[in-house]
Amino acid sequence: MINKLTSEERATQVTELRGWQAVAGRDAIQRHFKFADFNEAFGFMTRVAIKAQEMNHHPEWFNVYNKVEITLSTHEANGLTERDIKLARFIDSITA
Amino acid sequence: MINKLTSEERATQVTELRGWQAVAGRDAIQRHFKFADFNEAFGFMTRVAIKAQEMNHHPEWFNVYNKVEITLSTHEANGLTERDIKLARFIDSITA
């Protein structure tokens, strides 16, 4: 079992990420990415997929050509948890 | 330049695919897939990605865990073309 972040934890930790926004009507965060082309976008997705599998924590994501939209939330907690922050930090680290 | 399928071509060719539906309000087709887990879903996406890159014709797609939703349309023709049918056929062939 994993607990949702408290409002304070959430405020601090989401602010420390890069470009992640709250999702309207859901306890989740979202970031949009734009790459040079599909090769670069899918290469990025593959790196995230491997990390997600290792963490057993998976994104919701949409891709078209060079664009990727990622939404993070923890289904079993019905909201944002440390796992989302950890995955978001990894994603930020590979898109520096 | 590539032309949109005619109504007749479209009716025949989409019917020959498996499980593809017209998208409301767009000249596009969509199919939903469900796999055993994320590993299988992303493995499938990787096969489609490699084919799409080879064809230089890319899907719009959404994934969460074991689910994948794929939408096909040809942006430069603003609708459904032979390229979409060809990519859909490939996708069908690897999910038999």
TrEMBL record, chains A, B:
Transmembrane regions: none
Pfam families with a match to the protein in the record: Pterin_4a (PF01329)
GO biological process, any: tetrahydrobiopterin biosynthetic process
EC number: 4.2.1.96
Keywords: Lyase
GO molecular function terms listed in the Swiss-Prot or TrEMBL record: 4-alpha-hydroxytetrahydrobiopterin dehydratase activity
Catalytic reactions of this protein: (4aS,6R)-4a-hydroxy-L-erythro-5,6,7,8-tetrahydrobiopterin = (6R)-L-erythro-6,7-dihydrobiopterin + H2O
This protein's record includes keyword Lyase: yes
Coiled coil: none
Similarity remark: Belongs to the pterin-4-alpha-carbinolamine dehydratase family.
Alphabetized HAMAP family for the sequence: Pterin_4_alpha (MF_00434)
Protein name: Putative pterin-4-alpha-carbinolamine dehydratase
Species annotation: Paraburkholderia elongata
